[in-house]
């Protein structure tokens, strides 16, 4: 079956809110995001909540996000009282019909009926489950705390609780014993994931980040990832299987039922405006980028910068090319004020001649053959 086109993608929201929850039950072996393994420390959670409240008071009065995304860390690692307070604070300030999508990330091992009830009552519309794999061997290699059974239970609980959309994250490219094992695991993961009827699937290739347990294992001579050729075969398998299941491949690592694309992430990929709260959170608002320090119990603004318009436009060009639809010339002008041919014309023509970019008079996008090796294209454009 031919893949569906990405033309059904809705326009990105005009602004978004991100809240970083910096707590985990245990750090995953691959994770470089800021979090601390003190999720059950009620005192620390209260201190963090007070900090979120202080930041909320500093948010411009006119800020009215179309999307809300609570990520981490593990938001559902919070004690129920702290989790309820966080969602209530957000709902009191920004809840209501103006928020078109409200996502909460969850680990299947920390999701409970009580936390789902809190989400539904606050107005959460979308749950992003960090499944990663349905293979016990893969979950152990990745350092996950949950079991395959807990993934299935979490998805069922979310449906029963009335959460409108469920997304699953999968991860491939870990150090399987053979190409057959790697591909068999991907096939089994896709079968198991699709059996849960998700609205959205993200499929990420394992990358080794400095400072993580997997990086330390690699530094000691261990094998932690599959060979690139196996990873590419897994990616191609994922694309074919999800296309046959009716999913739109709308971003390099993201697939959705038509109309179920993640609006909040589309905001990032199109250079939109957003405000981030919490340690290590980033914002892009009124042309200024800001990042918070990765520190607890208190955090502060670690940097502020205003990019020159041309540099910002180049970054937006690259981020937007992560979408399989790419950029139209008109859309890029509307988003940045630049024509991409004026900005990077020679590079675009060279990449097109090399078969690394598809360029028509009014659109540029990556060819499917370049999806897995897109970093080389992006490096030439940024």
List key phrases describing it.
Arc Repressor Mutant, subunit A, disordered N terminus, pyruvate-formate lyase- activating enzyme, 2 domains, three-stranded antiparallel sheet, 382 residues, alpha/beta, 13 helices
Helix-strand layout with pairing:
Layout: E1 15-21, H1 42-58, E2 67-72, H2 80-94, E3 101-106, H3 113-122, E4 126-132, H4 136-142, H5 148-161, E5 165-172, H6 179-195, E6 200-205, H7 213-219, H8 228-244, E7 248-251, E8 254-256, H9 263-269, E9 273-277, E10 282-285, E11 288-292, E12 301-305, H10 309-320, E13 327-328, H11 329-336, H12 340-353, E14 358-360, E15 363-365, H13 374-381
Parallel strand pairs: 1-2, 1-9, 2-3, 3-4, 4-5, 5-6
Antiparallel strand pairs: 6-8, 7-8, 10-11, 11-12, 13-15, 14-15
């Amino acid at each position: 079956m031919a893949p569906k086109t990405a033309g059904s993608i809705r326009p990105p929201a005009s602004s978004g809110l991100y809240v970083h929850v910096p707590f985990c039950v245990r750090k995953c072996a691959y994770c470089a995001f800021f979090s601390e393994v003190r999720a059950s420390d009620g005192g620390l959670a209260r201190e963090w909540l007070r900090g979120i409240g202080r930041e909320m008071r500093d948010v411009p009065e006119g800020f009215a996000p179309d999307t809300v995304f609570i990520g981490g860390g593990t938001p559902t690692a919070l004690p129920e009282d702290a989790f309820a307070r966080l969602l209530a604070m957000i709902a009191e300030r920004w809840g209501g019909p103006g928020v078109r999508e409200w996502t909460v990330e969850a680990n299947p091992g920390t999701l409970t009926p009580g936390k789902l009830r809190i989400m539904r009552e606050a107005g959460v519309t979308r749950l992003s489950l960090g499944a990663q794999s349905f293979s016990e061997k893969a979950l152990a290699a990745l350092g996950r705390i949950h079991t395959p059974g807990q993934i299935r239970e979490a998805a069922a609980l979310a449906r029963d609780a009335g959460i409108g959309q469920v997304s699953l994250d999968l991860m491939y490219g870990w150090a399987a014993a053979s190409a057959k094992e790697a591909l068999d695991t991907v096939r089994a993961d896709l079968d198991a994931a699709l059996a849960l009827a998700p609205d959205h699937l993200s499929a990420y290739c394992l990358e080794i980040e400095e400072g993580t347990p997997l990086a330390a294992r690699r530094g000691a001579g261990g094998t932690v990832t599959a060979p690139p050729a196996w990873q590419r075969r897994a990616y191609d398998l994922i694309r074919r299987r999800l296309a046959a299941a009716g999913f739109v491949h709308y971003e390099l690592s993201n697939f959705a039922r038509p109309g179920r694309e993640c609006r909040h992430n589309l905001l990032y990929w199109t250079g939109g405006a957003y405000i981030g709260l919490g340690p290590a959170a980033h914002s892009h608002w009124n042309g200024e980028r800001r990042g918070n320090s990765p520190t607890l119990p208190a955090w502060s603004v670690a940097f502020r910068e205003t990019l020159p318009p041309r540099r910002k436009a180049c970054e937006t060009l690259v981020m937007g090319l992560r979408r399989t639809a790419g950029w139209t010339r008109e859309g890029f002008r509307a988003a940045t004020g630049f024509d991409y041919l004026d900005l990077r014309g020679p590079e675009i023509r060279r990449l097109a001649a090399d078969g690394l970019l598809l360029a028509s008079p009014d659109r540029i996008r990556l060819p499917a053959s370049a999806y897995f090796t897109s970093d080389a294209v992006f490096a030439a454009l940024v």
